[in-house]
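Class, discuss our next protein.
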Amino acid sequence: MFIWCFPIIFFLLVSHTVSVPILHHGRCKVNANIGYCQHREICWESDVELDSFSRSQCSSNTRKDLVCCRRQSQNISSTFHVSKSTNNELIPQPGVCGGSPLNNRIYAGEKVHIQEFGWAALLFYSYDDTEYTPMCGGSLINKRWILTAAHCVFHRHDGSVVNHIRARLGEWDTRSTPDCQEFLVGDRVCAPPHIELNIDLIKAHELYEHSNWINDIALLRLNRSVYYTDYVIPICLPPAKQTYADDYAGYAMDIVGWGKTAEAQFSGSTIKMKASLDVISTPDCVRTHKKLFFGQMCAGGQTPQSTCKGDSGGALMLMNTSYSIPTYFAIGIISLGPQSCVGSRSPNIFTRVEFYMPWVMDTMHANS
């Protein structure tokens, strides 16, 4: 029998009530306004409004009767509890973390806006501290710490801990610095140069097991604090929850990255990309993956391409639309993905962040 054990938590956690994230299957547009692809029966708009031609179309191979539903100006009444720590430096709160700029610029394909997902970190590895290679991703969660997968900090050939890791933040296009993005309307946005920092402490979960991907979570401490900018911000963390339920089954969540993985080398992308994945219930997931453990969840597999857009160790992100600025939370960490991107429709396994929040907070507190 596997026994879960967590140290004493040094934080006082309280919760405040905000609106529950909207269940949707991607973003769309209603005139110049943001909308969400939802089932017709749960959209608040009337059928007459929904059938108008002033909104983009939602389509899905697995979801029928999706409509583009305009975002409500008023919050819905359900509740979603977000942790408040007594130390907001360690656990940034909405308003500081997870912000995603919304604008009316149009950009092609699945490239992210140059300001989107400012917490996405590209992790570089070296055996000798001379030549560094991008191998995994991670997420900035405060000024000193990056959240990633435990399998990203061990060498594949002998299982030893990687000694030399650097984290790049504020990256968009790996071919250029500074990065500039051209839009179809003719304007151009440029970002400041990315920053690259050494990792001075690696903390993988003490009970990580590569054979079954249990406890696939790690924290990396930057050698200095970063300053938050429009291009470098932390992602929000969910409240701790150690009971398991398929709370997110059916939700659309996002992954982002350059297609780097420690387990299989795809050609990847030079530009940061994103994809939307549907979370899959445990019964549906175990049809492909024979067993899921506490602390694991499944998403993706609806299309062969989407599972290869993110990076190992990157975040599975839920967008909470109840704030004045839509706010992203790290719900999962990309753990086990496909070994090939050709024709794969197998769902990914993710580490459930909320299950490990006691470990995350205690580890940061003890080493900050």
Remarks:
- The chain has three domains: 27-70, 120-236+357-366, 251-353.
